[in-house]
Amino acid sequence: MYSGLLIILLPLIVGYLIPVKNRSLLHIVNQMLSWMVYVILFIMGISLAFLDNLSTNLLLIFKYAAVCFLCIFVMNYAALWLLERRRPWKTQFKQEKLPSRLHMALESLKLCGVVIGGFALGLTEWHWLTFASQASEIALLFLLALVGIQLRNSSMTLRQIILNRRGIIVALVVAISALIGGAVAALLLGLPLKTGLALASGYGWYSLSGIVLTDSFGPVIGSAAFFNDLARELCAIMLIPTLVRSSRSTALGLCGATSMDFTLPVLQRSGGLDMVPPAVVHGFVLSLLSPVLMAFFSA
C-alpha cells in the first residue's frame, strides 16, 4: 500500500521542490503539462481498446461515470447550498458579458476526441501498442513532476491561502461532500468503498484522475473517472452564470479543482474580481488534496 502511495507522491513532491524563477521556462513547463495531458489520454484510449469483452465494458464505463457524477454532484450541490444559507456571500458586482459557453464546452470535449483517437488506433492491435500500460506509467510520473512544479510556482503563498477563509471553507465542503457522494455511488454500483472514494477524489481534475485510476484500477475505472470529472467541468461552465446570482459558494464549489485555471475566467466575469482570490485558493487546495487522496485510496 505505502509503496504505491510513495510512487505517486514522490514525483509530485520532487516537482514541488523545484523553484522556477524564469517566466519563459515556467511557460514551457505549462506547455509541456498541456501536451502530456493529451499524450496520456491518447494512451488511455489505446488501453481501452485492449479490454476483454469490449462492448460490455464500454457500457460499464458509462454506467459508472453517470452514477458517480449524479451522486457526487447532488451531494456537492446540497452541501454548498446549505453553506450559502448559513454563510451568505454577498456582492454588488454586475455580470460582465461572458465568453461563449459553447466554445468553452467544445474545448473540454476535445479531450474526449483524443481518447477516441487513441481507442481507434488501439483497435488495429499493432504489436507495439501492447506497451501502452508501461508508457502510461512513465508518462504519469513525468506529469506529476510537472504538476508539482506548477503548484510550487503558482504564486500562492501559505499566508494567502490561510487568510482566504471563503476559498478554504468551500474547498473543504466540496472535498467532504464529494467523498460522501463517492461512497453512495460505490454502494449503488456494488463497488468497493475505496474505489468509490478514489473516483470522488478527482474533484473535476479529469486529466489526472483518469490517468491515476487507470494505473491503479484499470482502464474501466480510469475511464469512468475521466468522464465523471469531465462532466463536472462541463456542467460548471453551463451553470456558473446562473448560480452566481443566487449562490456564489455553489457556483465556485461545482468548479472543483478547475476553479484556479479553466473555469476561472467564467467565474471572474460572472461574479467579479472578488471571486478570483477564493477561486484560486479553492482550486489550489483541491489540487493539493486530489492526488494525495487518489493515491491513498488507490494504494
TrEMBL record:
Keywords of this entry: Membrane, Transmembrane, Transmembrane helix
Organism superkingdom: Bacteria
Membrane-spanning parts: 6-21, 33-51, 57-83, 104-122, 168-191, 203-228, 279-297
InterPro entries: LysO
Pfam families named in the record: Lys_export
Name of the featured protein: DUF340 domain-containing protein
Species this protein is from: Rahnella inusitata
